[in-house]
Amino acid sequence: MPDEATPGGLETLPQLNKYARDLALIYQSEKEKRKALELAHERLREAYEETINRLVIASEYRDRETGNHIVRIARYSAFMAQKLGRPGEEVEKIRLASPMHDVGKIGIPDAILLKPGKLTGEEFEIIKTHTLIGAKILGGSTSEVLQTASEIALTHHEKWNGRGYPGGFAGNDIPLGGRIVAVADVFDALISNRPYKEAFSVARAIEIIRSERGGHFDPELVDLFLDNLNGIVEIRDRESKLTHEKGPDASPS
Ligand SMILES: [Fe+2]
Fold first, then answer.
1. Helices 229-239, 202-211: crossing angle, 10 deg rounding
2. Pairing with 220, which of 110, 117, 120, 239 sits 20 to 30 Å away (CA)?
3. Contact 169/155 with Cβ under 8 angstroms?
């Protein structure tokens, strides 16, 4: 269609300059909008992550786990998922979801959760329900992170050989997040101080993890853990500086 300003549809130089200026303004304004949106998204992500961490701190408040424990579980778990070659999105989901594995402890009575001595069979049955309670608290959400968290809460005490709880699932029937957190949680419990035991050395903890290859733990994950010990120990060293851990039980419940 011919341009109105000049016969034959040819724009004049001032017109072209005006278009260029308008385009530059639109571009600039879109750029600013995108930047503001990115910033808002980042703030939302930070608030989301902090909310998760505070939820976890609230649930672990009674048995005095530390923030360091939560951070370490997240780091070990994400590290293993990444070394396994899982996509970045899944690694991030596991990183955010793994610290919530024990939120169900909020539903366990103090007399059992904080009992200093050995638990009776009946008490242990009650402790086991923290998996179901956690899955229920976190379940039914449209958020993929919370869906992963619910799955991990439910399955982090399942064992590769089918002798875990609450479902007695075995092998790959246990979701990857649950299998990963099982290794991370046990390792962290072993190398942490408890009221009635000193922390095991990393070497002793590794020995125990190795001895449960194909028993408690997914053999592929144990191999991965052993092949990447430097990274694991680095996380332990970096995230343990302020640790003053205390808990009712040496084994993660
Ligand atoms: Fe647990």
1. 130
2. 239
3. yes
The Å distance, Cα 224 to ligand 1 centre, comes to 22
Determine the distance separating the centroid of ligand 1 and the alpha carbon of 237, expressed in angstroms: 23
User: For the chain, what is the domain count?
Assistant: 1
pTM of the model: 0.80
Could you write out the DSSP letters of every residue in 115-148? --SPPPHHHHHHHHTHHHHHHHHH-S-S-HHHHH
Q: In 3D, which of 251, 239, 209, 235 has the Cα closest to residue 83?
A: 235
Burial 49-67 (b: 16+ CB within 10 A, else e): eeebbebbeebbeebebbb
- Largest pairwise CA distance in the chain: 96
CATH of the domain at 46: 1.10.3210.10
Residue type, 130: H
The answer to whether position 253 is within a domain reads: no
Full domain range(s) for residue 142: 12-239
H helix runs in 139-250, sequence order: 144-155, 176-190, 202-211, 219-227, 229-239
Rounded distance from Cα 101 to ligand 1 centre (Å): 6
pLDDT (tens digit per residue) in 150-172: 999 999 999 999 999 999 999 99
Angle at 253 between CA 201 and CA 218, to 5 degrees: 70
Distance in Å, CA 104 to ligand 1 centroid: 8
